[in-house]
Design a protein that fits this description.
homodimer; 5 helices; globular; DNA-binding
Chain lengths: 131, 131
DNA sequence: CCCTGTGTACTATCTTCCTAGTACAAGCGA
DNA sequence: TCGCTTGTACTAGGAAGATAGTACACAGGG
């Protein structure tokens, strides 16, 4: 499957930042590898119904971070990596998280409640770590 | 413990939205109940070093949603409610999540990687659910 | 060479968010 | 009544995000 972006208009996060984050996550979790091509600026703009400039801004940011390299006439390709933890570890953790998530669904939690719970636990931890 | 707000400047989410979300989360997870008082506009503004207008905007939004009611000279109080997760269920799920989180920390994941992993798993699920 | 598709650059405009500063109305207690 | 605290309203401005439209440079294929 080709890499596909997804936008959450209700989150309040700027569009270009959502795109940057998703590429970073793709690299972190092994969805994207060195040499992979990202969809072109115009493709993304058309698919998400946003301005090409917004997509270009995201790609420029990724280039500045050394994660991708543009090739005129061809597209934008992954040339860097932020992968620091073995894929096996990610797979194991993702599996554990999905198991937990199933339990939350069984308990009747909807999407918003799940996100609220996750955000709260992470917040609490950050708060404790800062103290 | 009095309800306390927390800001993440790097998230890109507008300040007033972060405040609104945190109150909603507090209600969802049973941290806040009918009759509880929120910190005053000026208290929050001073604690977070933001403009009082920004806090007022958040409180106005919460009032518009029917979750809180302002009382002149006294403060802002919780008067509404949303579907709550039973305390026992919440405690069990939070415990499970903390256990998983400990495993992630042990595997060497930093804060950003944890958030990326969680976001991706939730995204994948939303994507699968939409299909 | 010419055409196409790619990323990029530029200006201009609009909206939202945030800030600053000031002022006002309502409730409480001495 | 007076003083304090509360939420609220208002104007003004700066900064960031997103859009629209146009134009250019580069690479590849015919």
């Amino acid at each position: 499957m080709v890499f596909a972006f997804r936008l959450d208009a209700r989150s309040g996060v700027p569009t270009y930042l959502q795109l940057v984050d998703q590429v970073r996550r793709g690299l972190l979790l092994g969805y994207l590898h060195d040499g992979d091509q990202l969809p072109t600026v115009r493709e993304v703009a058309a698919a998400l119904v946003v301005n090409p400039n917004t997509v270009a801004k995201a790609y420029r940011e990724l280039e500045r971070a050394g994660l991708v390299t543009p090739r005129a006439g061809q597209g934008t390709f992954v040339t860097g990596s932020v992968d620091q933890v073995p894929a096996v570890t990610y797979a194991r953790l993702a599996r554990g998280l999905r198991t937990w998530l199933r339990g939350a669904r069984d308990a009747g939690l909807d999407d918003e409640q799940v996100r609220a719970l996750v955000a709260t636990v992470l917040d609490d931890q950050a708060r404790a770590g800062a103290a």
